[in-house]
Amino acid sequence: MTRIGPPVPAALRAAPALTLLLPLVLLQGCSLIPGFGMRDQPPPPPAYQPESVETHSFTVGPDDEILGELATVPVDNGDTLSDLARHYGLGYQQVVAANPDIDPWTPPAGTKALLPLRFILPDAPRKGVVINLANMRLFHFTGNSSLTTYPVGIGREGRASPLGAMTVDRKMPNPTWYVPESIRRDHARKGDPLPAAVSPGPDNPLGAYALYLSRPSYLIHGTNKPFSIGVRASNGCIRLYPEDIRVLFRDVKERSQVRIVNQPYLVAVGQSDIYLEAHEPHEELSPKQARAAVMAKLKKLEKKRGATLNWARITRVLDEVRGIPVAVGHAATATPDYAAGAVALQHPGRLNGQPEPVVTANAGDSWYVRAATTDDGTSADKLAAVLNHMGPRIPARAVAKGSRYEVLAGPYADAKTARQANKQLRLDLEIDGQIVEPRQRLSLRATH
To answer: Where does 311-448 have alpha helices with state H?
Structure first.
């Protein structure tokens, strides 16, 4: 049995820019005490709050370099930042970088999460598919002015996604995964031998659709691990959410151009200002060289336009790497307000793809896996949230047992299914769980 502070999932641990289990920071502002210093004034009517803004489809003019708009949404009970990311067409790293003061797995209900739905277009020809690895985002240009954009998962460290120009060689619904020998060797070393081919279905990591690229062995495809989108987790392929690859597969034609770039620092000239968007450079790049290049670009723009930029603000944006376009003109203050102009959204209710609550009916007849025991209820809640967002999902909840807390995966109908879940815990998270048989008494008092 493993005792925690919860471990980081292996697929996510490969992304050093992400801190999965951040310290909880509550920011409290000042408020008026009702009735104090006031003369029975009626409260103002609540401002209208829409449920959504545009997340995927845009019209882009030839001179447009920046698109979309920021938004905020209140966190509801049981939400994670991963849930909000998927619902609003964002990736995990994008939403975590934009909200450094919010715990991604146990955000307090009522907290306003910032949705970084404003993007600077990568510096690349606007034709076909363009993928920027740095912000893990795909842009699909069609016709003269239409653009759709989706978050992606990309190659992990040591198996980076390839750069350069290529084409879509062929399209395949319900693809079979022919497992590369290098991946079979990796899994064999972990005690998880893979077959030479994996048929279509829930265990196929390619998901339901695949675009085979002219660069051999590389694909744009779906996934059976949707919460790995926005993370460096693949063996070099480009992953999309199941709902996004369905549309992209329909819209992209064979022989379409695909260009993959790696641009962590993006600059755009807007109607009234110059904007800078910064992402954490990946290890394949020299951060020093990438930073020098964008500083040179900004100085060139400053001279060309006869304008003075705010270099103190530019330094802050490059240091803080929030992934949000920020105006850097001379009139701006040195401290950027990343949420400036954000549209306040109301919570939409059920979030697309959010895991269903764990069902505990007839729990006494079920099998469980005890994944961890801890003295800290918050740590238990975090690990349970991580398990619920695995692929395939491991349904889990944190429960109180005396003065301690357990993370229980299940319920499972039989011992075989419980053992399979325990194997997944060991392979993906390096957790050695304990099988809990039906006859063993369980406390199912939830931590909240």
So the answer is: 311-320, 377-388, 415-429
